[in-house]
């Protein structure tokens, strides 16, 4: 055996929640911060884009909660789902790194688009 079933389920939950958060953050920023300044591309949902964006963000929030629930009962230190701890730790490290260092030197990818 490579480890406990609870540990495997926690790893799968962390990976799933991480992918969902990476998917939802740009959508959340689009429907909030960039609502007025965003220029739609050739494929656009038109007037439904904000509604669909909010549905996607709410779906990710729901899935994040569901994947953070305990996988076995009764909940003990052996059966506790550590997904919220792991995801919270990664988010804390990422945001701290951005605030303390990366925002000063990170420039993003070079774009080669002619206007």
TrEMBL record:
Transmembrane regions: 6-29, 50-73, 79-100
Cellular compartment(s): Membrane
Keywords, in A-Z order: Membrane, Transmembrane, Transmembrane helix, Transport
A cellular component term, taken from the record's GO annotations: membrane
Bilayer topology: Multi-pass membrane protein
Gene Ontology MF: a single term: gamma-aminobutyric acid transmembrane transporter activity
PANTHER family named in the record: AMINO-ACID PERMEASE BAT1
Name under which the protein is recorded: Amino acid permease/ SLC12A domain-containing protein
Annotated source species: Nymphaea colorata
């Amino acid at each position: 055996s490579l480890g406990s079933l609870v540990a495997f389920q926690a790893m799968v939950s962390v990976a799933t929640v991480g992918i969902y958060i990476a998917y939802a953050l740009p959508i959340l920023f689009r429907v909030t911060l960039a609502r007025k300044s965003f220029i739609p591309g050739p494929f656009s949902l038109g007037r439904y884009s904000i509604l669909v964006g909010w549905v996607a963000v709410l779906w990710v929030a729901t899935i994040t909660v569901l994947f953070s629930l305990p996988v076995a009962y009764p909940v003990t230190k052996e059966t506790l789902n550590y997904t919220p701890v792991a995801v919270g730790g990664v988010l804390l490290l990422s945001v701290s790194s951005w605030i303390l260092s990366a925002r000063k030197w990170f420039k993003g990818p070079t774009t080669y688009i002619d206007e």
